[in-house]
Design a protein that fits this description.
Blueprint (H helix, E strand, L loop, with lengths): L1 E6 L5 H12 L3 E6 L6 E2 L2 E2 L4 H15 L5 E5 L4 H6 L5 E4 L3 H4 L3 H8 L4 E4 L2 H7 L4 E2 L14 H8 L6 E5 L10 H15 L1 E8 L2 E8 L9 E5 L8 H7 L2 E4 L8 H8 L4 E3 L5 H5 L5 E3 L3 H14 L14 H16 L1
Parallel strand pairs: 1-2, 1-5, 5-6, 6-7, 7-8, 9-12, 9-13, 13-14, 14-15
Antiparallel strand pairs: 3-4, 10-11
Helix pairs in contact: 1-13, 7-9, 8-12
Length: 335
């Protein structure tokens, strides 16, 4: 099996993992990214022009005459070039914002014309309006696993005796709603009787807390917003954290939640994408809609100080299982 991948962002960690897993399973993968300068804002591809996509098609057409079995278009904006070539069956994978955001009309139009469509969640499948294979991004369970929080905090320079809440996205990404995360954590601090101080760890600045009476760090609550961290270091942050807080306005199937569950890290999240399904039946994992509900859930998690048991639910969402399911889609369209 030889597959040509079209993609807007060939540096996206989950895409690189997808390629690596498929290659390990015997699929030959070539990658053809869209030309032009790219700047990511909420996953949207807003820096490339229409001309970049016009320039893209001749390269796609030329490549389609190669010895490939399948053309795999990743992200809806690559779909027009994929469908315009006459030689290869097309698998279209939608990533989330391309079907839940502004590109949605184009993505729906193209999805109805692809040979197969892959989405990350049932919500995305419903928004697509055609038959879809629901295949969430997988998690490498050998990398994302529970280990000592004290060791993780020592490596990161975090205080052992505080409470640490992880916001695993850039503050600037509006769809992730960092201001809401700040409001929720501020409310938790009020309930736990703490006041803010500034702390700096490595090259990441966070908002920290010390106890209201100045008694020290035992009651501290720190909100850590991180981004640009090498993916293989994320297990350190997840194991160092007492909870992952996700306040997103929309999601497909957020990897941060699956990776947290694989590390048995508690999760508090808005009910976006497939998060309600991911955390169903998991201890110390909650979805909530209002700020008060999110604060209630987070305060409860921090006061208990116990891990989740999310890892037991992640077997079906392993990276290897994801690769097997994508390979099965390739086989079906190639036949």
């Amino acid at each position: 099996m030889r597959v040509l991948n079209l993609v807007t962002n060939d540096e996206a960690e989950f895409f690189r993992q997808q390629v690596a897993v498929l290659q390990a399973q015997g699929v030959e993968v070539d990658v053809l990214p869209v030309p032009g300068k790219r700047v990511t804002t909420d996953h949207a591809d807003r820096s490339r022009s229409v001309l970049d996509y016009v320039r893209y098609y001749p390269a796609v057409l030329k490549a389609s005459f190669g010895e490939y079995d399948v053309l795999h278009a990743n992200y809806g904006l690559t779909a027009p070039a994929a469908l315009a070539q006459p030689n290869l069956p097309v698998v279209l994978t939608l990533w989330g914002s391309d079907i839940l955001g502004k590109p949605a009309p184009l993505s729906r139009f193209c999805a109805k014309r692809a040979d197969a469509v892959i989405v990350m969640s049932d919500e995305m499948a419903a928004a697509t309006g055609t038959d879809c294979h629901v295949i969430p991004h997988g998690v490498d369970l050998d990398v994302f696993r529970p280990f000592s929080s004290e060791v993780a905090r020592d490596v990161l320079g975090w205080r052992r005796d505080g409470k640490h809440v992880l916001f695993p996205y850039a503050k600037q990404r509006a769809v992730k709603d960092y201001p809401r995360a700040e409001r929720v954590v501020d409310e938790v601090r009020n309930r736990l009787g703490t006041r803010p101080v500034a702390v700096e760890v490595g090259d990441v600045t966070q908002t920290g807390e010390c106890s209201a009476d100045g008694a020290g760090a035992a009651d501290a609550v720190a909100l850590h917003a991180i981004h640009g961290v090498p993916h293989d270091r994320m297990p350190l942050y997840l194991n160092a954290a007492d909870a992952v807080l996700l306040t997103s306005k929309s999601e497909g199937s957020p990897n941060a939640i699956k990776e947290a569950l694989a590390c048995d890290t508690p999760v508090v999240s808005t009910p976006v994408g497939d998060v309600p399904d991911l955390v169903a039946g998991v201890r110390n994992a909650t979805v909530a809609s209002t700020d008060d509900e999110l604060a209630d859930a987070l305060a409860s998690v921090l006061e208990r100080g116990e891990p989740s048991d999310g890892r037991r639910t992640m077997t079906e969402l392993s990276a290897e299982r994801m690769g097997e399911r994508i390979r099965a889609v390739y086989d079906s369209v190639a036949r």
